[in-house]
Design brief:
By secondary structure, the protein is α/β, with parallel strands linked by helices. The chain has 2 domains: 141 residues, Rossmann fold (3-Layer(aba) Sandwich), CATH 3.40.50; 236 residues, no CATH class. It has 11 helices and 15 strands. The strands form 3 sheets. A 7-stranded antiparallel beta sheet has the order 7-8-9-10-6-12-15, with helices on both faces. Strands 2-1-3-4-5 form a 5-stranded parallel beta sheet, sandwiched between helices. It has a 3-stranded mixed beta sheet with strand order 11-13-14. Helix 3 packs parallel to helix 5, helix 9 packs across helix 11 and helix 10 packs across helix 11. The longest helix is centred in the last third of the chain and has 21 residues.
């Protein structure tokens, strides 16, 4: 699982204060938190405003070091702190209950108004007493890693009715089984997507359905930021692609989440491609995507491209649910379906992985499994194989060795296509 990313916002009150912030950032990195700090990451000649904007937008958590001077500059709208206030305020307004922004009190003698006005009455961590630094640091590390020292015990049975109090399975935090992958929401999204791809006369496709067995509850801006920060741009158009340069293709909010539909002509082949994805407030994700192979050699399916696409899909899910704040122990149900296989021939995209062409008469292959968020990286090769082996078997009993899966999956994780 990727390390959580934290951006530190502070004012340059003094050399001693800058040194304290540097020490905090170093301690956080030593505890597995990827800290972005101007003292490390901002070089002469860089656009300072862009650095602040990207740092705040791309971070999982933003730590605001609230010294008296910081609060004064934030409330007065002056300097870099004033600019950062505008960015933070925008996100807070979009989702008032967000926990992304963590006020940290330092170098302040005040007992009231110790945080900037725009943060409202947010709970803060008090780092003013140096002898308590270690304890406060542990609190902060636990909060960022979402590993609280105290966890809420399970709800018991009423002593009067003998019946446990239950929560509907659609509510955030409620446990459900993988049968939700067949619920009405997925069925509706599938119907829209299949209608869209049929309009451009494509039949080959990959469909993804996945979601949390313990759902979350997120605003639409949190969903959009989560998707943007989870895209993997190593191969072709990424899973969950967000296009901002064409208004008709931009992700759109709707009552229960966000969705995007993109149908364009491939510049090199002149053939159409199709992507449709939707993300629900509880974390359910749906995608239907035309096959990359149809833009290269129609009537074929590349085994190595399929391994790459499934690897990307699992990495995207891992990043997305980490960005949405799902605990490491969260279980995720996955279903991957390939359609339009009948009449296709299994080959290879890479000339270095020659495969004797094998045909299929079956049209559909579907596989599903349940994985644990914290284990997705370790189990990735096995998970990819579990998904794709049944499909490859349809092509005249084709199988590939463990070494082939290992090489392609791990190379893609490193940003290389093999």
């Amino acid at each position: 699982m990727s390390a959580p990313k934290a951006f530190i916002s502070y004012s340059h009150d003094s050399d001693a204060h800058k040194a304290w912030v540097l020490q905090l950032a170093s301690d956080l990195r030593a505890n597995g938190i990827d800290v972005v700090l101007d003292q490390w990451d901002l070089a002469p000649g860089q656009d300072v405003s862009l650095f602040m904007q990207r740092g705040i937008t791309n971070a999982d958590r933003v730590l605001l070091i609230c010294s008296e001077k910081y609060v004064e500059k934030a409330d007065g709208g002056s300097g870099g702190v004033g600019y950062e206030r505008l960015i933070v305020t925008s996100e807070v307004v979009q989702s008032i209950d967000t926990i992304k922004f963590v006020p940290i009190i330092r170098n302040s003698t005040k007992t009231r108004n110790v945080t900037p006005t725009f943060l409202g009455p947010r709970l803060y961590l008090d780092f003013r007493i140096d002898v308590e630094y270690k304890a406060r640091l542990e609190e902060l590390v636990r909060e960022i890693h979402r590993a609280p020292a105290l966890t809420k015990p399970p709800l018991g049975v009423s002593p009067f009715s003998g019946t446990p109090v239950s929560v509907p399975a659609t509510h955030a935090g409620a446990t459900r089984d993988s049968s939700f992958l067949d619920n009405e929401w997925f069925a509706q999204e599938s119907s829209k997507a299949l209608h869209g791809i049929a309009k451009i006369q494509l039949t080959g496709h990959m469909e993804l359905r996945f979601g949390l067995l313990n759902p979350v509850s997120k605003s639409q801006i949190e969903l959009l930021n989560g998707v943007k920060q989870s895209e993997i741009r190593t191969f072709g158009w990424p899973i969950g692609i967000t296009l901002e340069n064409r208004d008709e293709y931009r992700p759109r909010p709707y009552g229960d989440g966000i969705r995007a539909e993109i149908s364009v002509e491939d510049g090199s082949s002149g053939r159409q491609s199709y992507d449709y994805w939707a993300l629900r407030s509880n974390g359910d994700f749906y995608l239907l995507q035309s096959l990359f192979e149809d833009s290269r050699r129609a009537g074929e399916i590349f085994f190595d491209t399929r391994i790459v696409r499934i690897t990307e899909s699992l990495m995207f899910a891992e990043r997305l649910y980490t960005k949405l704040g799902a605990p490491p122990e969260t279980r995720i149900a996955f279903r991957v379906t390939h359609g339009g296989l009948g009449g296709r021939t299994l080959t290879s995209a890479s000339p270095n992985r020659s495969v004797f062409p094998r045909p299929s008469t079956e049209n559909l292959s579907s596989s599903e499994f349940v994985g644990v968020l914290a284990n997705l990286h370790k189990s990735r090769v096995d998970d990819v194989r579990k998904i794709l082996e049944p499909m490859f078997m349809l092509f005249d009993f084709m199988q590939f060795t463990d070494e082939v899966y290992e090489d392609i999956v791990r190379s893609f994780e490193d940003g290389r296509i093999r």
